[in-house]
Amino acid sequence: MNKAPARGHEEAEWEALVLCSPGDILDRSLTFYRTHFFTLVLTAALIWFPMQLAAQQVHNVWLRPLHLLLESTQYANGWQAAEYWLGVLMLGRNAYGMPGVWQLIQFALFSAPITLLVADHAAGRPLSVRAALRNSLPFFLRIVLITLVNLLFIAAAVLIIEILFTMIVGVLGQVMIMLNLPAGFVMFMLLPEQLVVYLVCMAVFSRYIFYSLPLIVIEKVPLSQIWDRNSKLAGGKRLRRIWAVAAATPLLAVGLFLVVWLGLLQIWDKFVLPLFHTAGIFLQQILQSVFLGALTLLVFVYLALICAFSFMDTRYRYDGLDMRLMQKALMERNEEK
Question: What's the pTM?
């Protein structure tokens, strides 16, 4: 489709936000990321790294002594083990690239100014790190609250869906046993079950949660109305497109993380680690945490861009602005002729 001869901020809207397929959203997000890499990474880093350093200090003071105690004690105290795994749930395990609740809150917080940067780009305004951070700061408390509520909601949804599909597979397994079918059929059903559970969970996530952050910072929707507004934006035929983007995003993130991590791990082992081999295990762990934190930051910025571009495209479709832009473009072309 030819570009419309629109002007000003409408030209940016036409080029970036109208008639985007899921593949277009991923591609445009990556293009925007590459074009404004320094601005986006700086915006995210100003929020991410102070919180990451605070999490590292909490880990050193709280979880590391607990971990050493559990490893050195033959009969570990049950409460101490529960406390340790609660800390892992909250802070994650940076050595394995596993984010915790704290990292997800970090992601939610820096997604707010990044979403505003995408909105400024769509409106044809210059990108400003200071303005994006200043304008997103009043929403931080609401972002933390909705992130915690959404995590509880999706955890409950995953648990319920997993139980239902486990029961279904169990019943089918009993039927197969009664029919004297090989046990391998039952084991083979577990893989499709996990895939179906993932897709169903992402459908629920897409319908009610996916646009929570853009709805707060762009539309300023109250917390009590976010799920309802998200369900309206993601309703009807739009759900399939949003579902495709939401389902592909975590898989893409994991793939990017693994590919980049495996490559950088070779650099770490061959060049970085030999420089600090006499620095002690404690300093090496700190450097490894910063190393993995930076990698996680780069991947999470891309995820925030995907969500923001998908929201802008969905909102324009829902409001019918794409049709108005195309109508105006057609009128301008007719006038030029």
Answer: 0.79
